[in-house]
Amino acid sequence: MKRVAISLICMTLLIFGVTGCSQLSQEVKQTADDLYAAKVEFVGDNAAVYALIEKTGLGKIKDYTIQLETSQEPYGLIINVAEKEDSFNESDFAPSAIQLLGLIKNLDYVEVNNGDEQFKMSTEEASALIDENVKNLGESKDKLKSIIEELTNK
How many CB atoms lie within 10 A of CB 23? Predict the structure, then answer.
């Protein structure tokens, strides 16, 4: 009787574990689909860039403005934060910066600042973090999904 009870508990835990992993996998797939559909050709497309920023979730930023540096290379996206719930932590911004750099074709760097603190990431730095050219994210939905899974599991 004890063995049956232990077996049932183990099977239940296994089922819940598989279901949880499956749900996370589905969420990552949906996120990758949404981000890939919102990819942007030129950083100068203000509305499209803003929509993509919103889809990345960009940390826990509540109120921000964007500034697009498009007059000469390197082309940049500067996000000026008015208010953020928690401390200004690089780990809040790095995954979104990687996604933005990969999904905005001509974007060379992303900068987030709140007046006192600053986070900045270039395409080279993002590529080094994911061990491949970050621009490949905009060319393959499967590659984007793979990187999102990797960033989620860190």
Answer: 10
Who contacts 108 (Cβ-Cβ below 8 Å, separation ≥6)?
A: 73, 74, 75, 76, 122, 123
Domain count, the chain: 1
Measured distance CA(38)–CA(135) in Å, rounded = 15
Per the structure, the complete domain to which residue 9 belongs is given by 2-152
Which tokens in the block code for residue 61? 């930023």
Q: How many CB atoms lie within 10 A of CB 52?
A: 24
| Inter-residue long-range contacts of 66-75, CB under 8 Å, 24+ positions, other chains counted | 68/43, 68/44, 69/43, 70/42, 70/43, 70/44, 73/108, 74/108, 74/109, 74/122, 75/43, 75/106, 75/107, 75/108, 75/109
Query: What tens-digit pLDDT sequence spans the chain (154 residues)?
Result: 444 334 334 444 444 444 444 565 888 889 999 999 999 999 999 999 999 999 998 866 878 999 999 999 999 999 999 876 666 777 889 999 999 999 999 999 999 998 888 999 999 999 999 999 999 999 999 999 999 998 877 6
Angle (deg, nearest 10), helices 90-103 and 141-152: 180
